[in-house]
Design brief:
The chain is an alpha+beta fold. It has a domain of 38 residues. The chain has one helix and three strands. Strands 1-2-3 form a three-stranded antiparallel beta sheet, with no helix packed on it. Strand 2 and strand 3 form a beta hairpin. The radius of gyration is 19 Å and the shape is extended. Keywords: Signal. InterPro entries: Peptidase_S1_PA.
Length: 83
């Protein structure tokens, strides 16, 4: 059975990640050091709209239920999906 081997590999990977840390922690409002973008899209200037944000919440099916785009200092745009 491979379960003990898989467990050992998972623990080793976890420890390596813990020791090396990760570079996923970003400061609010700071763009990650990445050249990735939407195909055909443009890189936005800092402090320009729209920003995408997520309100962490899930429905009874375990689905995320609220993501929106900031379109101003006090306004956001949320898509309402048809059920």
């Amino acid at each position: 059975m491979n379960s003990p081997k898989i467990l050992v590999v998972a623990i080793v990977l976890f420890l390596i990640n813990s020791i090396l840390g990760n570079d996923c922690e970003l400061k609010c409002g700071r763009r990650p050091d990445s050249q990735q973008r939407i195909m055909g899209g443009d890189i936005s200037d800092e402090a320009k709209w729209p920003w995408v944000f997520e309100l962490k919440g899930w429905n009874s099916c375990g689905e995320q239920f609220c993501t929106a785009q900031l379109i101003g200092k006090l306004f956001f745009l949320k898509r309402i999906r048809n059920s």
